[in-house]
Amino acid sequence: MVSPKDFDFGAHLFAIGTKVNCRKVHVSSRRLLSLADLSTQSRCTYTRFMNMHARQTGEIQRPLIDSYGRQVNYLRVSVTDRCDFRCTYCMGENMVFLPKSEVLSFEEIQTIIAQFVARGVRKVRLTGGEPLVRRDIMKLIAALSESHLAQGTLDELTITTNGSQLARHAAELARLGIRRINVSLDTLDNALFTEITRRGRLSQVLEGIEAAQAVGIAVKLNMVAMKGVNEDEIIPMMEWAHARGYELTLIEAMPLGEVALDRADAHLSLKQVHDRIAERFTLEHIAKRTGGPARYKRVTETGGTLGFITPLSHNFCESCNRVRLTCTGQLYMCLGQDDRVDLRAALREGGVEALDAALDRAMIAKPKGHDFVAERIQTPSVVRHMSVTGG
Ligand SMILES: C[S@@+](CC[C@H](N)C(=O)[O-])C[C@H]1O[C@@H](n2cnc3c(N)ncnc32)[C@H](O)[C@@H]1O
Ligand code: SF4
C-alpha cells in the first residue's frame, strides 16, 4: 500500500510533475520531503495524481491520502444523534434531535463504509449519540461483520457506547467479532452519575461493562475529567478500572456545541492531572499510538494502561489518520474544523461513483489541524455537538 512517508519525495514528485505536466512541482531530490513542506497547489496535484494513477492502473485499493501526506485508514461513524442520556458536557437538557428522515439508512451506511473499506480503511468505530439505542442496530453490526470482518477486509469493527444497553447486547457483539469496546464512565458515585448524565443509572452501565468482559470483549473506559465535578475520583477510578482489567482514558472536555456546563470553570488540564498522578504512581511512557489524540502510560503499581486525550493542550494533528461521518452523511475531516463533504448527497444523486469522487474531494479538503484554544473554551470553536459528529 502506498504511503507517501515511504517515498523519496524529491524523486517521486519530480516524476509526478513530469507525468501530469505540472511545472509548479519544484523540489530537491537531495532530501526527504514531507508533503506538508509543499505549497497547497503542489499538495493537491500530488493527491490528484495518486488517485488518477491508481484509477488508470486499476488498483482495487486507492489509498485515501490527504494533501499533507496522511493516510486515512480509520472511519468513525455516528449512526444516530439520539441518546438516552443527556451528559452535561455533551448535550443540552432539552436537546432537539434530527427528524429520522434526515438520518442515513442502514443501506446507505453500509454502502459508504464499503467504499471506505475499498479505499483502504481498516478500522471502523460506530458511535453517536448512543449507537445501541438505534432501532435494529445489531442488524447493521451483523451485516458489517459479515461483509468486512469475515472477509478480512477490515481489521477492527468497534463501538463507543454509554453502556446503558450493553448487558443485553454483549454476547451478540462478541459473536459478531467485536473484540474491544469503549464505554464512557465519568464517576462511580450513583448520585453524581445521575447528575452528570441527567438520566442514566450507574448500576445499568456497570452491569453492561461486566457483561462485556464476561464474553471476552476488552473494555476501555473513557472518563471526561472535569474540575470540581469528578476530579477527586480520577485516581480511585484508575485503581478500580485497573484492578478489573479495564484500560482507562481521561478526556479533556472539548468546546463542541452549546451546553449548560460552564466549560471554563470545569476545564481541568490533564497535564496537571498527569503530574498529580505521577506523585503517587510510576507512569512509564509506552509507544502505543492510535493516530489520534491519545497518549498512553503504563502504571507500574497497577499494571494497567492510562490514556490522556488532550486536544486543547496537545497537538496531535500531524499523525491524524481518521475522518468522521455524521448520521446525516456529512463527512468531517477534522473534529475541530467545519470543513465537510456531503456524502449523502453524492450517493443519492450520483451513486457509488459520485461517492468515490467525493472521497477524493474530502482528502484534498482535510485540514492541517484543529483550532481548539484553551483560552476560548467557553465559546464553542465548533457549533455542532459531539453527539452529531460522533465522539
Ligand atoms: C459523543 S459520545 C458517543 C458515544 C456514547 N454515547 C458514549 O457516551 O460513549 C463519545 C465520547 O465523547 C465524549 N464527549 C462528548 N462530548 C464531549 C466533549 N464536549 N468533550 C469531550 N468529550 C466529549 C463522551 O464522554 C464519550 O466518551
Ligand atoms: S456523551 Fe454519549 S451518553 Fe452522554 S449525552 Fe453524549 S452521546 Fe449521550
From TrEMBL:
One Gene Ontology term of the molecular function aspect: 4 iron, 4 sulfur cluster binding
CDD domains: Radical_SAM (cd01335), Twitch_MoaA (cd21117)
Gene3D superfamilies for this protein: Aldolase class I
Pfam families hit by this protein: Mob_synth_C, Radical_SAM
Keywords recorded for this protein, A-Z: 4Fe-4S, GTP-binding, Iron, Iron-sulfur, Lyase, Metal-binding, Molybdenum cofactor biosynthesis, Nucleotide-binding, S-adenosyl-L-methionine
Residue span, Radical SAM core domain: 67-293
Required co-factors: [4Fe-4S] cluster
List of residues binding [4Fe-4S] cluster 2: 317, 320, 334
Top-level taxon: Bacteria
Enzyme Commission code(s) on record: 4.1.99.22
GO biological process: Mo-molybdopterin cofactor biosynthetic process
Binding site for [4Fe-4S] cluster 1: 83, 87, 90
Comment on bound cofactor: Binds 2 [4Fe-4S] clusters. Binds 1 [4Fe-4S] cluster coordinated with 3 cysteines and an exchangeable S-adenosyl-L-methionine and 1 [4Fe-4S] cluster coordinated with 3 cysteines and the GTP-derived substrate.
Function description: Catalyzes the cyclization of GTP to (8S)-3',8-cyclo-7,8-dihydroguanosine 5'-triphosphate.
Quaternary structure (record): Monomer and homodimer.
Protein name, as recorded: GTP 3',8-cyclase
Source organism per UniProt: Pelagibacterium lentulum
